[in-house]
Amino acid sequence: MPNPRKVVIAYHAVGGGDCPAIVGSFPISLDRFAAQVTGLRERGWQVGRLSQILEPVDRDTVYLTGDDGTIDWARNVLPWAEREGVPTHTGVITGVWRDEPIFPIAHKVQVMLAVRKSNDLPRPKLTAEQAAYIDKIYAYETDPNRRYLKGACNVLFSYEQAQAFLGTLDYDCLKLLVERFAQPADYNRLTLAEVGVHTVRHNAYDGDAASYYATEILPCLATLMQRCQRVNRVFTLPVKPKDGVSLAPLCETLRRHGFTGMCHNPGEWNQQDFIVCRVDAKDVESFFGLPEWKD
How is domain 6-93+181-288 classified at the architecture level of CATH? Predict the structure, then answer.
């Protein structure tokens, strides 16, 4: 008899009710999320805690993960999951909780792309190799101004370089940015909501495992341990690493410090690798054979 499957699902934005999805995201609706979970449970899948992903299971198990800690996930999904007895995991960016918030470059770019017209966006100067790398990662962005701005700031520039390149945000962008993140109370009032490390600033890994752990992962974990009640040891990589960078040294560093896995890459986890692949929310119906969703 085959071993039960373990499949992790990745969500990034879920809109519904009085809390629409965050601006600039690629969301699904809360109705679709609920239909996915309900459909899986009706087909015999159970929903597990990500903190227990290495433990044996007696039947096929899915694990529900949301990235970044945005307000739409916290206000829409988490209360629904609590009512339904469904565990969740949120990879939280903790820089936004500081007295002087550190907002992720990726989210600054998102609000800028949502508010400004394409021709009004700043345009980075890229080499042919850099442009080709961005074309590969962000092929879904058909507008080159959007594609190269997003790619340069997310995977090429350092945090400081991206900050300088983007400049000061106008009022509309800053308002959207400030309002998009949940707070510790949004997780602590629930009993089935786990949180985990998603870094301080959502920066791409540059290959220096010791530095990345010290500046992005450990401070994030410390903040979560101080301010949240249910913290697990699964790390969610915020974005793809810098071009050509191997994740092996980072995986070994995380292992040494007691982490049980790192969520990254699309697909189904083989239940052996430290890197835990995830099925994207938009692919759940086709992956699991659920009815096609029509909004």
Answer: Alpha-Beta Barrel (3.20)
The per-residue pLDDT string of the chain (295 residues; one tens digit each, 9 = 90 and over) reads 578 999 999 999 999 877 999 988 889 999 999 999 999 999 999 999 999 999 999 999 999 999 999 999 999 999 999 999 999 999 999 999 999 999 999 999 999 998 899 999 999 999 999 999 999 989 989 999 999 999 999 888 988 999 999 998 889 889 989 999 999 999 999 999 999 999 999 998 999 999 999 999 999 999 999 999 999 999 999 988 987 899 999 999 999 999 999 999 999 999 999 999 999 999 999 999 999 998 7
If DSSP codes are grouped into helix, strand and coil, which group holds residue 236?
strand
Q: Where in the chain is the domain with CATH 3.20.20.370?
A: 6-93+181-288
Which of 8, 56, 6, 1 shows the shortest CA–CA distance to 280? 8
DSSP 8-state secondary structure symbol assigned to residue 42? H
At 188 the three-state DSSP class reads helix
